[in-house]
Every structure is written in C-alpha cells, then in structure tokens.
Design brief:
The protein is 77% helix and 0% strand. The protein has 4 helices and no strands. The relative contact order is 0.15.
C-alpha cells in the first residue's frame, strides 16, 4: 500500500508548481514586453529551480540538512520571483527589497545541499 507524501514532499511539490507555472507565465510575458529584463530574470530563476524542487519532492530525502537546504531553495526562489513579479506588475518598489532575501536563501540552500552531500553517512 503506497504511503501518503509527508509535509516535506507536499511542500516541495507546491514550490515546484508555483515556480514552474510562474516561470512559464514570466517567459511568455517577457516575449511580449519591450522591457523583458525583470520578467526574463524571473523566468530564468523560476524555471531553473522548479525542477530541483520537483526532484526533492519526489525523492523525499530524509536527512534534515538536505531537507533544510531544499526548503531554502524552493522558498527562497518563490520569494525572489514573487516579490520581483508583484513589484514589476504593481509598480511597488518597496517589495524589491525582499528579492535579495529570497535570492540569498536560494544560494544558501544550495550551499547547504553541498554540505549535506559532504557529511552524508550511508545508513546500514
């Protein structure tokens, strides 16, 4: 009998879906815009991090460090793309100050994945 996905797998699949859909929308909007710089950046980050979030969600790693890195990657990318997108669409520059927080969280998440790979011990 298959087990139900745990909170981590569900969260990572939600991140993957948000990033995937948002990335496609941003790429489409960028192709129809005269100023595609911000939309192109959103599409690039979203569409490169969505497959990673999907892989983490489907693999459901059990290590806490790896899970923490994955959540930082997915959450950070959503924060980065979301704040840039809302700021771009609504013209609210105040929100762009949150984008570096999301970008930093994403980068830190990847560093955490590296550390998790270096300290991982195989279970007997």
């Amino acid at each position: 009998m298959p087990t139900r996905p745990d909170w981590f797998s569900r969260l990572m699949l939600v991140f993957a879906g948000i990033l995937g859909a948002g990335g496609v929308v941003a790429a489409a909007a960028a192709s129809h815009s005269s100023d595609d710089r911000v939309l192109g950046a959103i599409a690039l980050v979203a569409l490169t991090q969505a497959p990673a979030a999907l892989a983490f969600g489907l693999a459901a790693p059990t290590g806490r460090l790896l899970r923490a890195g994955a959540v930082a990657i997915g959450g950070g990318a959503c924060l980065f793309c979301g704040t840039l997108g809302v700021s771009h669409l609504l013209g609210i520059d105040l929100l762009t100050m949150l984008a570096p927080v999301g970008g930093s969280a994403t980068a830190l998440g990847w560093v955490t994945v590296v550390v998790a790979g270096l300290v991982h011990r195989r279970q007997p």
